[in-house]
Design goal:
Blueprint (H helix, E strand, L loop, with lengths): L3 E8 L2 E8 L15 E8 L2 E2 L5 E2 L2 E3 L7 H11 L7 E3 L5 H13 L4 E5 H10 L23 E5 L3 E4 L5 E6 L9 E5 L4 E5 L20 H12 L3 H12 L5 E4 L9 H16 L4 E6 L5 H15 L3 E6 L5 H10 L2 E5 L9 H13 L6 E7 L4 H12 L9 E4 L4 H26 L14 H6 L4 E2 L1 E7 L6 E7 L2 E5 L4 E7 L13 E6 L6 H8 L15 E2 L5 E2 L5 E13 L2 E13 L8 E2 L8
Parallel strand pairs: 6-7, 7-8, 8-9, 13-14, 15-16, 15-17, 17-18, 18-19
Antiparallel strand pairs: 1-2, 2-3, 3-6, 4-5, 10-11, 11-12, 12-13, 20-30, 21-22, 21-25, 23-24, 24-29, 25-28, 26-27, 28-29
């Protein structure tokens, strides 16, 4: 196995159990950087509290079943099977419940600690099994251990533990994790934040070496999972700011000991950027096994790339007023559902009724979801919405079981296409390009002067992964400049809503194809055309491979094989710096194609 668990003593009576996976665990969108992950949990040993009373061992934020074997082995070496182990469940999903069931089998006196909503989810999921394939002849599964007693945390509470530790438990419900519960150790200032401030990055060290070592990973995690619920996340961050924090230890990735104040500020800043949009998409969903939620994450990520705000609502735990407000105020609505026993879950059926009664027929809707052996729920949603006079923004997204990497990429691009269309409609309605600042007037002298800054015409290509998991992309780039002599490097500015942008993170490789003057038209026509989500950008072209396997266009003047070394956010673009490791001139007699512009308000 390439997954293992190590024990890191933090202070007397407190141990971090750190699950390490150098490879991505699943194809959920938040693992897209493919830097592995860690699963961080914390064990407070048994002993006497400050009043001299015995307290049992307390385990905070155990991982999912992906780490079960090495995790249980480590835990068994630290906790006696006769111990009345208490387990704080930070968030609840089927993968987490699967490990809790194994804990309950090994520690018969186990007690779970969960928020009010978390307890409800545990009760619903404990005896739930994935349905067998129709007609399959599978052996009956062994009986499950009974659901342990649950200590329900309805509001913030502090509990004294051994070695003078005091554990404060804080419910933090969000649409994505309605059963959210974080833990704060008051004497050491250690915030065990669960999903908040997390990053999927495999590292044996307890804490990051410096802020920049994981900054991109934390931003990527935020964009994937936090941005669609920015308002709720901001409220949680406000609560955290009132704590006497000294270290933040999230459920994934290294802890933050030195720059946690900057990270809180980053979360606020990132949330403010999305809240400024005049347009919003309401994302309504329910998810039995997490697969429909993974599709929702991909759509939200794609929409957010365009700057359109996403409001994520878990229909199983939302208030009717919140649901109604989102339906009435949004500019587009997406609704997703699993199929359970041939039906949509009751909360989705109820939400659909509200959409049919209160929704604006002039606004586009989208249907998405996952299924096991049938997809009746998605057929129901599609039929009811079409018959109700709504226009579908895209063909319903129907995924059997879990989406793979290529499917997730297509889902992202579907969300981006929707966001672009909403922006286009908004601009046409306003009869102006609402970009703010100097660009409010295309005749502004500064904007006209900015347009005189020219760059070479290039096609930036990228390929990532191999086999069925291979992803590729390309875009026309004209904001290109050499950036360094030694090592040789260049910068490229890439709009945030470009599909290839997700393939250009630190450590990814790409190829800069410099176009030749006089014969750039064919390649520009190929790569400037509107592509359907998931379409092959290289269809019909002869493409060669660089030494690192990146696409070279033979019609180009020259090419540079490079690795992305850094990224900087620049308004509506990302500026990437890449170092070249190989290259070549394909036509020494040709000259470089240059992009001449009359205004700096557009390409």
């Amino acid at each position: 196995m390439d997954r293992r668990v190590i024990a890191l003593p933090l202070e007397p009576g407190l141990i971090c159990l750190k699950g390490l996976s150098p490879k991505r665990l699943r194809f959920e969108i938040e693992y897209g950087l493919e830097r592995g992950t860690t699963a961080n949990s914390f064990l407070f040993e048994a002993g006497l509290n400050a009043d001299g009373k015995p307290v049992p061992p307390v385990l905070v934020h155990p991982p999912g079943a992906s780490f079960a074997e090495p995790y249980l082995e480590q835990l068994a070496a630290l906790v006696s099977p006769d111990a009345a182990l208490k387990v704080v469940v930070g968030h609840v999903n089927p993968n987490r419940v699967a490990l809790l069931q194994q804990l309950a089998a090994r520690w018969p006196q186990l007690m779970l600690v969960a928020s009010n909503t978390g307890a409800r989810l545990l009760e619903e999921l404990w005896s739930q099994r994935k349905p067998a394939a129709p007609g399959s002849d599978t052996a009956p599964e062994p009986p499950l251990p009974p659901l342990p007693a649950i200590d329900v945390i309805k509001q913030e509470v502090s509990r004294p533990l051994s070695h003078g530790h005091v554990l404060r438990l804080i419910p933090v419900p969000t649409p994505r994790w309605p059963g959210g519960l974080v833990a704060f150790e008051e004497t050491s200032g250690l915030l065990m934040s669960g999903k908040f401030f997390a990053a999927h990055l495999c590292s044996e060290a307890f804490a990051e070496s410096n802020r920049s070592s994981s900054e991109e990973d934390r931003r990527y995690f935020y964009d994937c999972l936090m941005a669609p619920m920015a308002r709720q996340v901001e409220a949680v961050v406000e609560r955290f700011e009132a704590l006497d924090i000294r270290t933040i230890a999230p459920g994934h990735g290294p802890a933050i000991a030195q720059s946690w104040r900057s990270l809180l500020a980053d979360y606020r800043r990132w949330g403010e950027a999305s809240s400024r949009s005049d347009l919003s998409v309401a994302l309504l969903f329910a998810s039995a096994y997490g697969n429909t939620a993974a599709i929702a994450d991909g759509l939200a990520q794609g929409v957010a790339r365009t700057g359109v705000r996403v409001e994520s609502i878990n229909c199983e735990f939302s208030e009717p007023e919140q649901l109604l407000g989102a339906i009435r105020s949004c500019d587009a609505l997406l609704i997703g559902s699993p199929t359970l026993g041939g039906h949509a879950p009751t909360p989705i059926v109820s939400a659909l009724g509200t959409v049919l009664a209160e929704g604006d027929r002039s606004k586009p809707v989208g249907v998405f979801g996952s299924f096991g052996w049938s997809g009746e729920a998605l057929d129901l949603l599609e039929t009811k919405l079409r018959d109700g006079g709504f226009t579908l923004a895209f063909e319903p997204i129907k995924v059997k079981f879990s989406p793979d990497a290529a499917t997730l990429k297509t889902i992202e691009e579907t969300g981006t296409a929707l966001g672009r269309e909403l922006l286009s409609q908004h601009r046409r309605a306003q009869k102006r390009q609402a970009t703010g600042g100097l660009a409010e007037s295309k005749s502004n002298p500064a904007i006209l002067a900015l347009g005189r800054v020219v760059g070479s015409l290039c096609v930036l290509t990228a390929r990532k992964g191999s086999g069925d998991a291979s992803l590729s992309g390309a875009l026309v780039a004209s904001w290109v400049s050499q950036a360094s002599f030694s090592p040789p490097g260049f910068t490229v500015a890439i709009a945030k809503d470009r599909a290839a942008e997700s393939l250009l993170h630190i450590g990814d490789r790409c190829c800069l194809n410099v176009l030749a003057s006089g014969r750039e038209s064919a390649l520009m026509k190929q790569f400037l055309q509107p592509f359907a989500p998931g379409a092959d950008r290289f269809a019909g072209l002869e493409v060669e491979a660089s030494p690192a396997g990146q696409p070279i266009l033979p019609e180009a003047l020259a090419w540079l094989d490079a690795e992305v070394k850094s990224r900087m956010e620049c308004g509506d673009h990302w500026l990437i710096y890449a170092q070249a490791s190989a290259g070549g001139v394909l036509d020494a007699a040709a000259t470089t194609a240059v992009h001449q512009r009359r205004s700096g308000a557009h390409y």
